[in-house]
Amino acid sequence: MSETIRELISEEDVDKRIRELGEQISRDYAGKQIHLICVLKGGVFFMCELAKRITVPVSMDFMCVGSYGDGTKSSGVVRIAKDLDESIEGKEVLIVEDIIDSGNTLYYLMDVLHRRNPASLRLCTLLDKPERRVKDVKVDYVGFEIPDEFIVGYGLDYAQKYRNLPYIGVVEGVE
Ligand code: IMP
Ligand code: MG
After folding, report:
1. Interval 106-161: pLDDT, tens
2. How sure is the predictor about 169, in pLDDT bands with cuts at 50, 70 and 90?
3. Would strands 151-152 and 168-172 be described as parallel, antiparallel, or unpaired?
4. Helix (H) or strand (E) holding 86
5. Residues 173, 2: contact at Cβ < 8 Å?
6. Cα atoms found within 13 Å of the Cα of residue 4, Cβ hemisphere only
7. Closest Cα to residue 159, out of 171, 147, 146?
């Protein structure tokens, strides 16, 4: 493996932005309880940090939806590898995702969750690559808009590596 990682967004800048998102979300949901749904595995670092910055009550659940293989190309196939443990009916649901790329995964997931009758359904993503969008997905909260490059760190992987980097980086030296 000859790939290298170039820092794109520093640990300090990510932390600062997550605090801002937490404040904004806390204001928007004042007087309510938020049911956070983490999209595994990539969303887990972001959800933990975000949840700590939200001041209204939160509950959490986890879902695993796959569309990627081991490389940097989407397979285009969306499947639920792990479903939620609890019902979302009547809850204020906020999906927490690492990155929206083509939009295929979230387009599918929003549709599935909508049918389960939540009181509200919103989407928060740490990173957004708008140039790559194929499906029209409405994103309510975005950490950073980024260019069309392959990203790792803060939960995001390349062939299951680099999720634990505390900053956001770009993979260089791969096809
Ligand atoms: P989408 O369905 O194309 O929007 O892709 C969604 C999923 O693909 C994300 O939740 C990530 O898990 C993965 N993904 C998309 N772009 C990247 C990237 O740049 N680095 C790592 N994973 C990515
Ligand atoms: Mg993901």
Report:
1. 999 999 999 999 999 999 999 999 999 999 999 999 999 999 999 999 999 999 99
2. very high
3. antiparallel
4. none
5. yes
6. 3
7. 171
- Is residue 72 over pLDDT 60? no
Sign of CA dihedral 116, 118, 121, 127: negative
Burial category of 148 from C-beta neighbours within 10 Å (exposed 0-12, middle 13-18, buried 19 and up): exposed
For residue 100, the CA-to-ligand 1 centroid distance in Å is 6
For ligand 1, whether the C-beta of 98 sits within 6 Å is yes
Contact (CB, 8 A) for 62 and 84: yes
Cβ atoms 106, 123 nearer than 8 A? yes
Q: Is the pLDDT of residue 75 over 70?
A: no
**What is the band of 79 on the pLDDT scale with cuts at 50, 70, 90?**
confident
105 touches ligand 1 (CB under 6 Å): yes
Angle between helices 44-53 and 11-28 (to 10 degrees): 60
Mutate to test the pocket of ligand 1, among 40, 64, 67 (most ligand atoms within 8 A of CB): 67
Q: Give the DSSP per-residue string, 65-103.
A: EEEE-SSSSEEEEEEEEE--SS--TT-EEEEEEEEESSS
